[in-house]
Amino acid sequence: MSMIYQTLIISSVAIALTLIYASVLDLRERRVPFKTWYPMLVVALPMAVLTYAGLFSDSPRFALGLLFLSAMLCVFYYVASAYLHLFGGADAWAMIFITACIPLFPAEPYAGYPIIAFFPISVIMNAVLLNLVTPLGIFAMNCLRKNHGPLRYMFVGFPVAGDTIQDEFGFVMEEFTEGENGEVTRRYLSFREAIRRMIRGERRLYTRDFKRNPKEYQEELRLYRKAGTVWISYGVPFILPICAGFISALFIGDIMTILILALSGVV
User: Fold this and answer.
1) Taking residues 235-251, what's their average pLDDT?
2) Among the four residues 31, 70, 140, 169, which has the most C-beta atoms within 10 Å?
3) CA neighbor of 6 nearest in space, from 36, 50, 37
4) In angstroms, rounded to a whole number, what is the distance separating the alpha carbons of residues 132 and 93?
5) What number is the average pLDDT over the span 18-30?
6) Mapping DSSP to helix (H, G, I), strand (E, B) and coil, where does residue 101 land?
7) Do residues 127 and 241 make contact, with C-beta atoms less than 8 angstroms apart?
């Protein structure tokens, strides 16, 4: 088993460094080219093969179950990204590579092993939980800046100037129409409507698209300038929570398990 943990540690270092670099790229450019993963894959894929070889040698039944679970989860991330549009491409590939290369905890984290010690599940759960902190920060910022909007939208977005919206990062949360008298009316897109559009494959309006293809969005940009301000959802890429979830799972453990034990009075 010592050889297995060594291969997992090597994979973890390679993936952690790549996730940090990918997070910087996504924050700066809002895109992570697939070639970003190449150096990590050169290291992590051979280690994954050695890991499963060692697992099959020690316990074929356990290794086969682990391989099946990993494969199903990888398929889920691919489908969720390519067809359901629930993940960005870089986010999905990050989770696919983590799932394929590190099925087990490389070492016992500070809080100990969770009941289900399947490392990729702890990573995605940690990422989701850590991402929940962001809306609180958005709400606090809106309160400090005295931005007024429907309460639920104040947790996920903020207003930006309509004439410089193409320089911001985020998805447009409002829809504008212009009446015959030239008056601009606006309405907030509901969360349900946004999800339905994503599932149908209809792209949400992304602010960077306005800068890349201004001619295609001339009418929208005109209405935004006329409206004065536009509410957009925060543009923090999910690759950051994935990176944080990965590192926290490595060193701290499964945050959900920690919270459950704390609430039940066990710890």
Assistant:
1) 90
2) 70
3) 50
4) 22
5) 88
6) helix
7) yes
Helices (H) and strands (E) in the chain, counts: 11, 4
Q: How far is CA 67 from CA 55, 85, 95, in A?
A: 10, 25, 15
Burial of 145-179, coded b for 16+ CB within 10 Å and e otherwise, reads eebebeeebbbbbbbbebeebbebbbbbbbebeee
Distance CA 70, CA 99 (A): 6
Strands (E), 157-234: 157-161, 174-178, 184-188, 229-233
**Strand pairing report for 184-188 and 229-233:** unpaired
Check if the beta carbon of residue 176 is closer than 8 Å to that of residue 184.
yes
220 contacts: CB under 8 Å, gap ≥ 6: 176, 205, 210
Alpha helices by DSSP H, listed for 30-118, are 38-58, 60-82, 89-101
Q: Higher-confidence residue: 135 or 244?
A: 244
pLDDT in tens, 68-121: 999 999 999 999 888 877 778 889 999 999 999 999 999 999 989 998 899 999
Task: Using CA atoms of 260, 103, 106, 42 in order, give the dihedral in degrees to the nearest 10.
Answer: -140
pLDDT tens sequence across 151-203: 888 998 999 999 999 888 888 888 888 887 888 888 888 777 766 665 565 66
Going from the C-alpha of 1 to that of each of 59, 119, 226, the distances in angstroms are 11, 16, 65
Q: What is the dihedral sign for C-alpha 124, 21, 247, 236?
A: negative
Measured between alpha carbons, how far is 131 from 235 in angstroms, rounded to an integer?
Answer: 12
